[in-house]
């Protein structure tokens, strides 16, 4: 009756059958178990051993006879916890492996890998990826990146994580003339203290979207209305954005000091 649900939770089909049989029978001998579950005797021994390993059954001796009995169903929660831990470990292993696999993929094709992720969660997934880089990160700062409270918290949280990882960043930041010179100087110092070097550019060159470039990856996040992050992995496209950034960085050096006076 409950075999499919038990399988979905993580038991193998024969394990689910034997466990449910024991729940119905109560403490019983192997003969009763394999007859009731319609399994071969050898299979039943193997399944009972597996269930015992999972701590879902125990055995006891009663008048010289070995009896098997099911543990309370609450024990199944431990299977789910172990499954969750395994998935988390596999996810962490994949995240560490992805950069190498992506590089390997890109050596045999010019086709870019493009992913689109929606919402703050998608933006956070991309920020997590940044934490694995060993190289400098380049940012075109959007004029909308502080308009949403949740987004602002996310940016501040990952700015701190990047700092703790020792990641260095450079940012092209359109200046907001409504703030005073001292405010701009405080902002520059705060960024500098977090390994971020900022150059202000004129407000007429504001960026509606945030663009982040590192390694062979570009993340373009639309922030004006719906938050949509498009992630592109391709060395040539990344090199193009880096070249564009460096050109603007060079030009911004001429205007930066004038803008904060």
From TrEMBL:
Residues 8-70 form the Transcription regulator TrmB N-terminal domain. PANTHER family: HTH-TYPE TRANSCRIPTIONAL REGULATOR TRMBL2. Residues 77-104 form a coiled coil. This is Transcription regulator TrmB N-terminal domain-containing protein. InterPro entries: TrmB-like, Tscrpt_reg_TrmB_N, WH-like_DNA-bd_sf. The keyword Electron transport does not apply. Keywords: Coiled coil.
């Amino acid at each position: 009756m409950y075999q499919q649900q038990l399988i979905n939770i993580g038991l193998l089909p024969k394990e689910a059958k034997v466990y449910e049989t024991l729940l119905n029978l109560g403490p019983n001998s192997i003969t009763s178990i394999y007859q009731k579950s319609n399994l071969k005797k050898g299979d039943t021994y193997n399944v009972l051993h597996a269930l015992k390993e999972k701590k879902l059954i125990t055995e006891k001796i009663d008048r010289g006879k070995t009896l098997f009995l099911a543990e309370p169903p609450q024990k199944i929660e431990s299977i789910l916890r172990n499954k969750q831990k395994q998935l988390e470990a596999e996810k962490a292993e994949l995240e560490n492996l992805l950069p190498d696999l992506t590089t390997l993929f890109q050596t045999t094709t010019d086709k870019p890998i493009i992913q689109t992720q929606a919402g703050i969660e998608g933006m956070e997934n991309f920020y997590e990826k940044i934490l694995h880089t060993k190289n400098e990160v380049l940012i075109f700062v959007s004029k909308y990146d502080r308009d949403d409270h949740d987004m602002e918290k996310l940016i501040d949280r990952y700015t701190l994580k990047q700092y703790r990882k020792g990641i260095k960043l450079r940012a092209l930041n359109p200046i907001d003339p409504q703030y005073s010179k001292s405010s701009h100087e405080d902002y520059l110092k705060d960024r500098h203290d977090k390994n971020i070097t900022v150059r202000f550019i004129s407000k007429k060159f504001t960026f509606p979207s945030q663009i982040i470039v590192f390694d062979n990856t570009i993340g373009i996040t639309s922030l004006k209305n719906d938050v949509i992050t498009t992630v592109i992995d391709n060395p040539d496209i990344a090199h193009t954005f880096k070249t564009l950034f460096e050109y603007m960085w060079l030009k911004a050096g001429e205007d930066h000091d004038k803008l904060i006076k």
